[in-house]
C-alpha cells in the first residue's frame, strides 16, 4: 500500500457513503463499514493511547478514549477506520498494529502503516477536493468549523495544498 493508495481508498469510501460536502460523519462511515465503536475512558496504563481496534468473535470493535477532545476522537475514528480498511489482515494477525498512540500533531511517524492510516484519515476528514473548493478567503478557524476538525488539521491540509500534495485522481 502507499500514501496515494490510502488517499484513493478514503475518496472511494466518501463516494460509497454519498458524502458530497463537509463535515464528514466518520462515526457513521465506520458503522457502515461494519465496525462497532465504543467510547470509554481508558485505564491509566493506556493514558497515551487514543484508540485501537480489537477483534471480538471475528468482528471489529473500535475503542476510542473518550477523555480525548472531540476533534481528536474524530481523527482517531478516521485513523482506525483507515487501519481496518487498509490493513485488515495485519490487524487480524497482530491486533497491536491498530493501536493509535497519542503523539503531537505533526510529529513524524516512521511506521508506514501509521503513515497510511494518517493519510487516509486526513483525506477522509478534509477531502482535498472539498478543501480546494471551500478554501478561498476563509480563515483557518472558519475552515475548521466547516469541516468540524481542529485548526491544526486545517493547517496541515493547507501545507499539503501549497506543496501540491493533491491526491491522484
Provide a compact summary of the structure.
With about 170 residues, this protein is of the alpha+beta class. It has helices at about 5-15, 25-30, 70-95, 110-125, 130-135, 140-145, 150-160, and strands spanning about 35-40, 50-55, 60-65, 100. It contains seven helices and four strands, in the order H-H-E-E-E-H-E-H-H-H-H.
SSE layout:
Blueprint (H helix, E strand, L loop, with lengths): L2 H14 L9 H7 L3 E5 L8 E8 L2 E7 L4 H24 L5 E3 L10 H14 L2 H7 L5 H8 L3 H12 L7
Parallel strand pairs: 1-3
Antiparallel strand pairs: 2-3, 2-4
Helix pairs in contact: 1-4, 3-4, 6-7
> Helix segment count?
7
Strand content: 5-15%
Outline, from the CA principal axes? globular
The low-confidence runs, each spanning 5 or more residues with pLDDT under 50, are none
What integer is the average pLDDT?
Answer: 86
Q: What's the N-to-C terminus distance?
A: 16 Å
Oligomer: single chain
**Whole-number radius of gyration?**
15 Å
Secondary-structure element string: HHEEEHEHHHH
Index terms:
169 residues, alpha+beta, four-stranded mixed β-sheet, 51% helix
Please tell me about this protein's structure.
There is one protein chain. With 169 residues, the protein is an alpha+beta fold. It is built from seven helices and four strands, in the order H-H-E-E-E-H-E-H-H-H-H. The chain has helices at 3-16, 26-32, 70-93, 112-125, 128-134, 140-147, 151-162; strands at residues 36-40, 49-56, 59-65, 99-101. The chain has a four-stranded mixed sheet, with helices on one face. Strand 2 (49-56) and strand 3 (59-65) form a beta hairpin. Helix 1 runs parallel beside helix 4 and helix 6 (140-147) crosses helix 7 (151-162). The radius of gyration is 15 Å and the shape is globular. The protein starts with a helix and ends in a 7-residue tail after the last helix. The mean pLDDT is 86.
Amino acid at each position: 500500500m502507499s500514501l496515494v493508495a490510502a488517499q484513493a481508498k478514503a475518496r472511494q469510501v466518501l463516494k460509497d457513503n454519498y458524502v458530497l460536502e463537509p463535515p464528514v460523519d466518520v462515526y457513521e462511515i465506520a458503522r457502515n463499514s461494519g465496525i462497532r465503536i465504543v467510547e470509554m475512558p481508558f485505564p491509566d496504563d493506556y493514558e497515551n493511547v487514543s484508540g485501537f481496534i480489537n477483534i471480538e468473535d471475528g468482528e471489529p470493535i473500535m475503542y476510542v478514549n473518550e477523555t480525548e477532545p472531540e476533534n481528536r476522537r474524530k481523527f482517531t475514528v478516521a485513523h482506525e477506520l483507515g487501519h481496518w480498511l487498509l490493513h485488515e489482515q495485519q490487524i487480524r494477525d497482530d491486533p497491536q498494529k491498530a493501536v493509535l498512540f497519542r503523539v503531537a500533531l505533526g510529529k513524524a511517524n516512521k511506521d508506514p502503516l501509521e503513515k497510511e492510516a494518517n493519510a487516509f484519515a486526513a483525506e477522509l476528514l478534509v477531502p482535498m477536493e472539498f478543501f480546494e473548493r471551500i478554501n478561498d478567503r476563509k480563515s483557518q478557524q472558519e475552515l475548521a468549523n466547516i469541516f468540524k476538525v481542529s485548526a491544526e488539521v486545517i493547517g496541515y491540509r493547507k501545507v499539503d495544498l501549497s506543496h501540491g500534495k493533491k491526491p491522484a485522481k
